[in-house]
Every structure is written in C-alpha cells, then in structure tokens.
Q: What sequence folds into this?
C-alpha cells in the first residue's frame, strides 16, 4: 500500500492522478486551498478504493504555514512514497507586463511556494531514505517566449531547482521527477481554443503514475513534447527573438 | 472563474440536426446554481455524452455535465451508489465490476452519463423484469430554473421526481443520483440464442422465455413474405461464478465520415442475410464477456460516422401488447416495402410501464431501426408515425429528431401534467432543447 501526499490536489491533473492511486488502494493526504472541492475529491477517492484519505487546506502563498502542513502530513502518513506537487495558476501575461505586483505574485505562486514546499519535503524524504518527489512544471519552462514568459520563468526556476535536488537526493535513494506537460484541457486552460496537440488530464495522470513507478527523472507528457521542445530549445536565439511565439 | 464558454457546432449521435451552441463547461454544482440564479435570455439544456440521437441535448446554450464526475458514496452492503450526474456507465463498470457489482439496467452503449440515463429513462434487455434505469434510482439532486438545489425521490418532491426521470432534462439540471447496483459473481454472460422463422415465432419465443433475465431479438428487416420478421433471439444470464474483469477501452475507431453510399440496399441486405445465417443451428449457447454482450457497437468508436456526413436517425417505437403481432407485422411490411433496410433492427418485449410522465416503455413490443437521412426519409417516417399511433404506440424521445408536435401530444398523454410541472418550477422559462421547442413543450 502506497502513501501519497498531494499538494494542489484539486488541480485537474492531480485529481486524475489521485483517482488512479485511489484505485490501487493507496493512503492519501490531500492538500489544497478549497475545502469544498477537497471534500468532493476525498469522497470520490474513498469510493474508488483508497484505504484512507485525509484532507488539509493550505494557501500556498501563506509561506508561514508550510512547515506545519508538511510536518502534519508526514506525521499522519508516516512513511511517504510519493509527494506530488501540482498547484499553480496560469498568469495573464499581458496583465503581468503592466504590473510588477502581479508578476511577483505569480512568481510566488508558481515558483517560490513550490521551492519552499520542496525544501521541506526533500529533507524529510532524505531522512526517510526513499520515495519520489514528483513535481508538475511545464514545457513552458524550457524556453522563454513572449506569450507567457512569467509562467515560463516560474516553471523554469522550479525545473532547475529540481535538477539540483535530484543530484543531491540521488545518493539518498530519493527520486526527483520533473513532469512537463504540454497543452492539457483543464479548467486552468478553459479559455483556450483546443487543437490536436491538446491532451486530457486522464492521459497525463496515467503517464505520471507510470513514470513514478519506473523511476524516471523527466517526463514530457504526452511523449511528443520531448521532440517539440528539443526543436524549440535548439533554435538559435538570433532567430528565436524574431519569432512570434 | 471555473467556466469556459465555447461557441460550437454540436449534434446528437445521429449527426442530425447540427446546431450552433454555446457550450458551457461548468466545474461545480455551486457554479451551476449561481449561473441559473442569474437568468439569461437563451434556451439552456444539459448535455452529457451526447448519445441521444436527435436534438434533445441541443439548445442555444448547452451545459456539459461531464465535469460533474465524482463518486460520492457507496454502500458495500446494499450496492447503493451515489455519484455525480456526469459519471459514465463505462466508468462505473470499470470501478465496480472487479468488486462484484453490475448496473441494474443498461442501455446498448456504456458511453452515457448517469444524468443522461435518468433524463432518457433508459431501458435495457431486462426491461420485462426490471424496468427502466430510474426504477432503480432512489433519489436525485436537481438544480431548478431559479438556482435552488432540491432532492427528489418517490417521497420527497415526488411529482418532480416522476417528471425528471424520463424528462429529457427539461425540469432542471440533474446534479447527482443514488441508485442500486446488483451483485454479480462473474463478468460473463451465458448467452443462448434461438433462430426464429418469422415474426409470430419471434413474439412467441419472447413469451416462452419471459423469465430470462436478458432478452432481445435482432430482426432481419429486409426479408418478406413467409420470412417476415425472422430473427435471432438472444437470451442472457449472469454466469454464477468466474472472473470479475472489467472491460478495456477499445481502440477501433471510424476516423471520419464515410461516404453514405456505402450503406445501400445491397450492402445492408447482404449484412442482414449473413448475420441471420451466422448461426447455422436453431439454438446456440456460449459464454461472453458483458462488454460485447451488452455493448457490441461500443467496440467501434464513432460508428455513427458510417452513415456519412448527412447523418442518420434511429426510429424506435413501441406498440402495446394487444396490438402485438398484427401491429408489428403491418409496420414491418411497410418497412420492407420501402426497401430502406437497417443494419441495426432490434426487437424487444417490454414489461409494465412505470409512473414517470414521459418515460417511453409501455407493456408491448419495441422495435428500433437506423435510417440514413435522405430527401424522402422524413415523409416515409411520417407515414410510419401514423401507423404506430393507430396501434396506440409511440416513439422514444431519446432517438427522435423529427416527430411532429401532434404526434408527440397524441402519444404521450401525460405531456400536459409535465408542462404544468415545468410551469410551476419556472423550467419553461429556462430549459428548452430544440426537441422540446419542436414538440411544443
């Protein structure tokens, strides 16, 4: 039986991942801001077969509470096999360009809060000597583009932090998985027109569970984003800066 | 806010009619209530998997219930499951078959939502014994036109319960429901099939096997004369012991609309003849998984595209038992004479009707046929409508895309009571589908 901690448990990808772990009979500790949604997801997980589900509210931008919440989660579950971090927002890029305050707030939500929570979890997993830290970043973090570089910068920061963490924790038997989804059809992206590159959160969830099992370090999901991003990363900057991306 | 609005062209499973609609993606019951409380100008209807064939889930605004997809509670002693309206039967089977539970009633596709199953009050191969889907529903939660959320059951808000089950989404938005699963010991069905020589024998066989849990007949709708109504009658029972493996998702898919000429008189005739003769003996038995047994067409995703871009309609009628053989013979002869064959022609004996105002089944015989849409089809179907009405029968709203207001009002005598409940709750100012407008509801 696996013990799983999910932060940002009400995000669409996290929710679908929770369902898969619930079906396996896992013990779940679900953390998110909206208690009503948390209760709905917890009830769903119980019916699907989760051995036990606990919920905890947290506003990730309330940094002072991070330590208590993580401590509580580890105390409740004891050993933790998987920590999944899935919280985040999609910043309004144009609005960010007009507001330093908003830009910093988005960086707080999408990067600094994650780094704070990662620091707390990493130390505990290191002591434990096992487990997987699985964090949802984004393909947007692979290269800055004018259409969403605030989001991209935040996710890129998380990805580089994860690289270092992976390097540090490898010797301690802890795997660090960087999950880089492409376009996913979720409430966060409801305003976008969907095309053939868009994936369902169910697909992403399945690939996450598999990647955790296999002990992968980086997951582009769906798989073709690895190749798309390989190209995007390798376009020379002299050309890239002229593109409308 | 958790709400996406998309302007879309949508249609039902028959790909006729198509309409421009605002598709509302709403992610919580609370948001639905808030949205309804701030009334709009446009007609609104809930939509699940879009498997009703015609125009019953189409309106100026179409609210997708697919985001309401949570399980809420399961009682392992009784099998009572409470879940949100957007959960599909397919998903329930995946979760509950391995634990030894099955749907009490299932239609011919598992790709429908619980809300849709209630709104259409779907029936299955066990109707003669176990009634419709709603007969296993003990309670449901409904969002009314003013945004109030109420519980409906046979004892609480009973008139709304009887109007909502089979009510085609016209009383409000079904948010969740409680219904009872049945225990099974195996995922397999023991199927027993009988070849019959003509319609009279088919109907006799239905009588003979009225105690069989599942029964349905595939009917060769192109043979005439002595062979009119020859069928393969298929009975089924849950296998008492065995594996409890749920279905897997199929991979086969019709990638795009086929040229509709592929389905013509000759190809359909060849198919019907082959299908009838695929079983050489007059009686055969085998054990099959529930998936091919109940959902043979689910294996081929988007099979509706076989009918081409102009779409098709499924004509499903029921005639009362008293009109039985004579009525069915008259209608079948008319269909054979028209040379409009149907790949799928399914005959079933219904048990007693329930108390829902607009539920389709009445005790008697129902026949469902698919017709490719062409310029002359609707005139022909109008003619069939008159014969069906003469025999005291009616058409299934879930399949319908074209019947007239007069036909509907003559054959659904409770329509006035239904309209009154709509007026009382203000539903008539908010919930409309293209179908309800066409039928004068």
A:
């Amino acid at each position: 039986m696996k013990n799983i901690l999910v932060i940002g448990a009400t995000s669409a990808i996290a929710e679908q991942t929770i369902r898969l772990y619930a079906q396996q009979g896992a013990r779940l500790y679900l953390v998110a801001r909206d208690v009503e949604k948390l209760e709905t997801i917890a009830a769903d997980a119980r019916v699907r077969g989760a051995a036990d589900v606990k919920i905890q509210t947290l506003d990730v931008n309330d940094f002072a509470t991070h330590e208590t919440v993580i401590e509580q989660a580890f105390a409740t579950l004891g050993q933790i096999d998987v920590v999944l971090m899935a919280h985040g927002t999609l910043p309004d890029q144009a609005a960010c360009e007009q507001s330093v305050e908003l830009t910093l707030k988005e960086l707080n939500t999408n990067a600094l809060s994650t780094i704070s929570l990662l620091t707390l979890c990493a130390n505990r997993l290191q002591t434990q000597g096992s487990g997987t830290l699985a964090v949802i970043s984004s393909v947007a973090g692979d290269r800055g583009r004018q259409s969403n570089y605030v989001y991209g910068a935040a996710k890129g920061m998380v990805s580089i932090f994860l690289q270092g963490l992976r390097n540090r924790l490898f010797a301690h038997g802890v795997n660090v998985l960087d999950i880089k989804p492409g376009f996913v059809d979720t409430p966060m992206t409801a305003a976008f027109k969907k095309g053939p590159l868009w994936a369902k959160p169910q697909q992403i969830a399945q690939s996450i569970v598999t990647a955790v099992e296999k002990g992968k370090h980086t997951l582009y999901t769906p798989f073709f984003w690895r190749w798309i991003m390989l190209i995007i990363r390798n376009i020379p900057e002299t050309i890239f800066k002229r593109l409308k991306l | 806010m958790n709400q996406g609005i998309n302007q879309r062209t949508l249609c039902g499973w028959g790909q006729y009619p198509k309409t421009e609609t605002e598709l509302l993606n709403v992610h919580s019951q609370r948001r639905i209530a808030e949205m309804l409380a701030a009334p709009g100008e446009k007609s609104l209807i809930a939509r699940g998997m879009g498997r009703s064939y015609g125009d019953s889930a189409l309106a100026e605004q179409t609210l997708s219930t697919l985001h309401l997809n949570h399980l809420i509670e399961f009682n392992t002693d009784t099998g009572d499951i409470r879940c949100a309206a957007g959960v599909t039967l397919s998903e329930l089977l995946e979760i509950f078959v391995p634990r030894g539970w099955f749907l009490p009633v299932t239609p011919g596709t598992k790709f429908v939502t619980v809300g849709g199953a209630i709104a259409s009050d779907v029936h299955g191969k066990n109707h003669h014994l176990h009634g419709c889907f709603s007969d296993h529903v003990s309670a449901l939660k409904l969002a009314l036109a003013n945004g109030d959320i109420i519980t409906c059951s046979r004892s609480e808000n009973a008139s709304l319960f009887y109007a909502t089950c089979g009510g085609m989404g016209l009383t409000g938005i079904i948010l969740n429901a409680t219904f009872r699963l049945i225990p099974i010991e195996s995922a397999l069905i023991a199927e027993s099939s009988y070849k019959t020589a003509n319609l009279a024998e088919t109907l006799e066989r239905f009588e003979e096997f009225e105690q069989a849990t599942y029964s349905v007949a595939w009917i060769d709708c192109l043979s005439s004369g002595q062979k009119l109504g020859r069928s393969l009658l298929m009975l089924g029972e849950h296998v008492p012991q065995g594996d409890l493996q749920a279905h897997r998702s199929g991979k086969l898919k019709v990638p795009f609309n086929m040229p509709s000429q592929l389905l013509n008189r000759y190809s359909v005739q060849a198919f019907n003849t082959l299908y009838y003769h695929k079983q050489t003996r007059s009686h055969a038995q085998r054990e099959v998984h529930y998936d091919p047994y109940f959902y043979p067409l689910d294996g081929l995703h988007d099979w509706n595209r076989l009918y081409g871009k102009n779409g098709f309609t499924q004509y499903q009628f029921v005639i009362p038992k008293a009109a039985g053989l004579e009525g069915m013979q008259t209608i079948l002869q008319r269909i054979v004479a028209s040379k409009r064959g149907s790949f799928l022609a399914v005959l079933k004996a219904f048990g007693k009707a329930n108390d829902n105002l607009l539920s389709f089944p009445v005790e008697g015989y129902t026949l469902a046929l698919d017709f490719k849409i062409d310029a002359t089809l609707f005139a022909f179907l109008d003619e069939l409508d008159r014969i069906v009405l003469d025999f005291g029968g009616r058409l299934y709203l879930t399949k319908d895309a074209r019947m007239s207001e007069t036909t509907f009002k003559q054959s659904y005598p409770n329509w006035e009571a239904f309209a009154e409940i709509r007026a009382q709750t203000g539903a008539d100012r908010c919930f409309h589908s293209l179908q309800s407008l066409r039928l004068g509801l």
About this structure: The radius of gyration of chain A is 17 Å. The mean pLDDT of chain A is 96.
